[in-house]
Automatic annotation (TrEMBL):
The chain holds residues 47 to 325 of 338 of the full protein. The gene is ECM31. It is an enzyme of class 2 (transferase). This is 3-methyl-2-oxobutanoate hydroxymethyltransferase. GO terms for biological process: pantothenate biosynthetic process. Keywords: Pantothenate biosynthesis, Transferase. Belongs to the PanB family. One of its GO terms (molecular function) is magnesium ion binding. The keyword Transferase applies. Catalyzes the reversible reaction in which hydroxymethyl group from 5,10-methylenetetrahydrofolate is transferred onto alpha-ketoisovalerate to form ketopantoate. It catalyses: (6R)-5,10-methylene-5,6,7,8-tetrahydrofolate + 3-methyl-2-oxobutanoate + H2O = 2-dehydropantoate + (6S)-5,6,7,8-tetrahydrofolate. Its EC number is 2.1.2.11. Pathway: Cofactor biosynthesis; (R)-pantothenate biosynthesis; (R)-pantoate from 3-methyl-2-oxobutanoate: step 1/2. One of its GO terms (cellular component) is mitochondrion.
Amino acid sequence: RKKITLPTLLAMHRRHDPITMLTAHDFPSAHLADVAGMDMILVGDSLAMVALGMDDTSEVRLDEMILHCRSVARGAKASFLVGDLPMGSYEVSPEQALESSIRVVKEGRVHAVKLEGGAEMAGQIRKITTAGVAVLAHIGLTPQRQNALGGFRVQGKSTTGALKVLRDAIAVQEAGAFGVVLEAIPADVATLVTKKLRIPTIGIGAGNGCSGQVLVQMDMVGNFPPGRFLPKFVKKYGHVWGEAARAVEAYRVEVKDRSYPAPEHTYPMAKEEFLEFER
Ligand code: KIV
Ligand code: NA
């Protein structure tokens, strides 16, 4: 497969070819997404929850994100890689945002960074892109601000809310973002925003009128313990957790009844050698 670059993605957008994006957080999940032909892989800070067991994304640190970015970079050969800037690594100033972005790209070996926020982050986006690092913006529901937003709530449902989403989208485009993630907004709003922009929109919980889609890999393959809350927009395409749980339980049973390891898993020894050893 040919390496996906920024020009590849923008060409796809021009010919209305939907852009596929999936998260990954380590070597195997990146390899899987890459081999499956994902155009983009996101090392999302959702890894705080799905890979590190944290309660929300606000806990994960920049150095932790960089470690995961590097593992993903080793697993992906063709997909375009985007690393999330975690909460606290970019909001303070455009300079802080650029320093963090350079670390994510240089040490994390990804091709671009993503940050949450609209018009208020225009300074950060301009600073980073001017230095030559590509930025994917993220507006609508921005999980790093869940406490300020009052939880995971759909954004842009009112006329004023929808106008804010549109203004934020235009602001990040004008600041130099190469694309924008639209999370948890009404489909009609996302479709209209997509039509008004020159840059591609990547939807998650934003309907099928976006230029592309992104999902959290562990959610869509069903690799999470029973009882985990899933947002309405997640489609569970697989049951990986159930399959892994079945395998581990079978192993436990076979160790207990000594049916594992069987002869075919065991190293034999010549009889005479063993008799000698036994003496
Ligand atoms: O962290 C993440 O996985 C994300 C996507 C849900 C867009 O930001
Ligand atoms: Na994220």
